[in-house]
Each structure stands twice: as structure tokens, then as C-alpha cells.
Amino acid sequence: MQYMVSVIFDGPGLATPEEDAAIDVFNDRLVAEGHWVFAGGLGAPATATVIDNRRGEAMFTDGPFVESKEFLAGFWIIEAADLDVALKLAAEGSKACNRKVEVRPFL
Amino acid sequence: MNGIDVREAVTRAHHEEWARVVAALTRRFGDLDIAEEAAGEAFAIAVERWSAEGVPPNPGAWLTTTANRRAIDRIRRENKRDDKHREAQLLYDDDPPGPVGAIDDERLRLIFTCCHPALAMEARVALTLRMVAGLTMPEIARAFLVQESSMGQRITRAKAKIKAARIPYRVPSGEDLPARVSGVLAVLYLVFNEGYLATGPGTDPVRHDLTAEAIRLTRLIRALMPQDGEVAGLLALMLMIEARRTARVSGSGELVTLDEQDRGAWDAALIAEGHQLVRGRLASGVAPGPYQLLAAINAVHTSARDVRDTDWSQVVALYDQLVRLDPSPIIALNRAIAVAELDGPEVALAAVDRLEDKLAGYHAYHATRADLLRRLGHSQKSRAAYDKAIELAGNTAETAYLTRRRDQLR
């Protein structure tokens, strides 16, 4: 079962070197214990482009699809047997990156 | 067999067997929905069948078998037979099936799943009352003063989350257990308190159905986890509060405070059972948690012949311990009430006033201040505090009591 752990940006600035180091340690652990699927950090919302091609003529719009003080800063996709395992890992991920995170199951 | 006997037998079986049937089916079919529906059908069939054929010698086994058949019928009907393995995976459990006492463990699994911290508190309460206690949707909706449809949605949403996010059907292990048990106890205490101090203008001041249900569920957990001190503590606490239920509201529907209650009207058997649980915990020599300390405080109150006979220094000492475990302002407020008896209202008022920023919106804060100010002879300030308390209080008996007290001020 796979879960997406979204990192919610709601505080000041980018990750500090200490946070980066803690994230690396956490990532190594995910790999070592077989939970790692994929992870990544995202550019700021200002770098986003929204595309709407539902009518066959792609429309490009500058900026994120929703303006918000809280936004997705990055994510992990993890493999976990059940939600208890996922929540435990997410709690450690939150500590490592020093941000709130959200856990959602893949369908 | 006459209809009344059968109805009684079904009611008794419902009390004793509902959780067991739902738990066994959830384990087997891995789906709370199927388990709940099939259990409901089995009880409906029992009403008919037992009238015609008599009550079976082992109602629990009869109900489980019947519910199992209904569940299998449903799965076949929905052409899910081939998907059974997939279905069984929906609620994940990694324990080997069938250890000793497995049936009891299944009920515990059910409780821990329903009280999972990833569910909203309201959903945990509703799900526990439906799945474990077997209350119907209208009963739960009425208990919490919400529309039946929104209560139904709440439960449906919770079941969907359990399934989609794969909340495990399992008793948490080792290091996770204490926190998860305390989550379960929080749900039960909430149900109890809603019954004990029911809110809302249209409700009875004491909802015996809810307090009784909370006690029944706590007894069940106590039977399943006899070694857990906090479970024993919560049960003892509930029993000693429940023992005072009839003395707590006057004939005219007004709250009667502890010092004015007719102690002869307390339920001596419930108090004795509560005291025995508290003594058992003291004998264990293990440091008590918050529920055990609250139970111990109630044991002191229920040991006294009257309010003057109460060992207030013991009560304050127990509150001191409690404050160290739980620094919440509500505990500090209750401690101050005991301090008033030991060191006088002036000392207590100073302690209460320090809680203003945190408790200004809480009726008991103003009611406590009003009482202390009254005892100190500050009628005007006391009246203002009573006004505020009445404005904020949600319980009809409490409002009636506060109003009388205010109107007695000179």
C-alpha cells in the first residue's frame, strides 16, 4: 500500500542546512527499511503554470491554481503496510523536515 | 414461548453479543460495512426465529453463524466471491488468526479501530457507539442532538476512511499501546460526560442511557485488559459518579451540589465497587495515571459522611499529583475548589483568578468565582459572576441551580 506524505509549507524560508541533513538521514532510513518509493522538493508556487486543455486548446496560466499561505513544498511517496506504519513514518518525516505533513492513501 | 421472553432474550443477546458478532465478522470479511449489516440482519432474524423455535442454547454462536451466512449471501449477491481475498485485505491485520482468547481480542481490535486517532473525535464516538455498543443510528443521533442523516454520514465517512486509508484492524503493540488505550478511554469518558452533564435546552439534565452505555463499554474493556490501571481508574471514576446520579438533581430539576446531596441516596453498591477498584490500584504500587487520581479523589468524597467530614488535605494532595500529570486549567480550577475547603475561599479565589485568560469562556470558572465571592461577602461581584455563569451554562439543572443561588444574594 502506498501513501503520499505531503510537506505543507506554512512557515518562514526554505529548509535550513540542519533540516536538509535530517531529511537525508530520514530518507536513508526509508530506503534501508524498504519504505522508499519516491520523494522530491518543489519550486515555490510562483514558479507554477496551470494548463487547461479540456477543450482541446491548451490554455496556460501563470501561477498556482489556488493562492494560499499554506502550499505543497514537497512530498514523499512511501510504501507502508497500513496507516499506523504510515503515520509513524510521517511523524518522523515531519520532525526531520520541520514542517507539517499530510498523509493520504493512494487508491 | 411468549413474545416478552423472546424480546428480552434478544435484548440481552444484543447487549452481550453484538460487539462479538460484529468483531468476528469484521475479522473474517475485512469490512466493517458488511459486518455491521449482517449483524443487524442476524438480530432481526432472531426476533422471528426465536419466537417460533425458541431461544437457542447458545445465542451468541447462533447469531454469529446466522450473520456469517448473511454476509456470505451478500458477498455472493454482489458477485464479490472471487474478490474475497482482496476484500479480506481491506482491513489489514498481520497477526496469525486464532490465538487463545481470540474472540475477546477481536472485540478489542474493533474498539481500537473505531477509536483510531486518525479519525475525528466525533467520528470515533459515533463509530464506537454503533459498532461496539450496537446503538442504532437514530439513538446515536438523538444522544448527540444531531440530525440522523448527518450522523449517518459521519459514520459512513469514518468507515470509508478506515477502508481507503487502511486503518488496521489490530490491537496496537507494545510501545504504542498506552497512548492508544488513553485514546479509547477519552472516547468513553466523553460519552459518559455527555450523559452526566447533558447539554442543550431540550434534553434531560442527566442522560442515563449514555452514562450506562459508557460504563458498560468500560466494563468490557476492563474485562479485556484487566491489568491496565487507567482502565480500572476510569471505571471506578464512572461508578462513583454514577452512584450519585439520583442525588445530584432535585425533584424540581435543579442541580444539587456535592455538599448538599443526600448521601443516603447514593448507590452504595456502585460506590463499594469503585472503592474496591481504587484499593486494587493502590495495592499494585504502580504510579497512578490521571483517571486513577480522579477516581481516588472521588473515593475520598464518597468515603465521607458529609462535606465537613471530607479529608480535604487528601483531596488537595491528589489534585497536586494530578496537576503534575495534566497541567490543564480545568484541573487547576477543580484543585482551587478543594483548596477553598482547606485554606479558605480567599486563597482559592486568588488561584481561580489566575486562570482567567484560559477559562473566561467556561461556565464552571464563573460559577466557582461566584460561589467564592459569595462566601467572602462580595455580593455584587458574585452576582456578576453568576450572571456570566448562567449565560454560559448549557445544562438545564445547572442553570436552575445557579439562578436560585444568584437570586438568594442580598
TrEMBL record, chain A:
InterPro entries: Dimeric_a/b-barrel (IPR011008), YCII (IPR005545)
Name of one Pfam family that matches: YCII
Domain YCII-related: 20-97
Species of the source: Planotetraspora kaengkrachanensis
Domain of life: Bacteria
Family per record: Belongs to the YciI family.
Protein name per Swiss-Prot or TrEMBL: YCII-related domain-containing protein
UniProtKB/TrEMBL annotation, chain B:
Any matching Pfam family: Sigma70_r2
Key words of the record: Sigma factor, Transcription, Transcription regulation
RNA polymerase sigma-70 region domain mapped to chain residues: 20-80
Residues covered by the DUF6596 domain: 180-279
Gene Ontology biological process terms from the UniProt entry: DNA-templated transcription initiation
Gene3D superfamilies, A to Z: 1.10.1740.10, Tetratricopeptide repeat domain, Winged helix-like DNA-binding domain superfamily/Winged helix DNA-binding domain
Presence of the UniProt keyword DNA-binding in the record: no
Keyword match Cytoplasm: no
GO molecular function: DNA binding; sigma factor activity
Domain RNA polymerase sigma factor 70 region 4 type, chain residue ranges per copy: 111-162
InterPro entries, per the entry: DUF6596, RNA_pol_sigma70_r2, RNA_pol_sigma70_r4_t2, RNA_pol_sigma_r2, RNA_pol_sigma_r3/r4-like, TPR-like_helical_dom_sf, WH-like_DNA-bd_sf
UniProt family annotation: Belongs to the sigma-70 factor family. ECF subfamily.
UniProt protein name: RNA polymerase subunit sigma-24
Lineage: Bacteria, Bacillati, Actinomycetota, Actinomycetes, Streptosporangiales
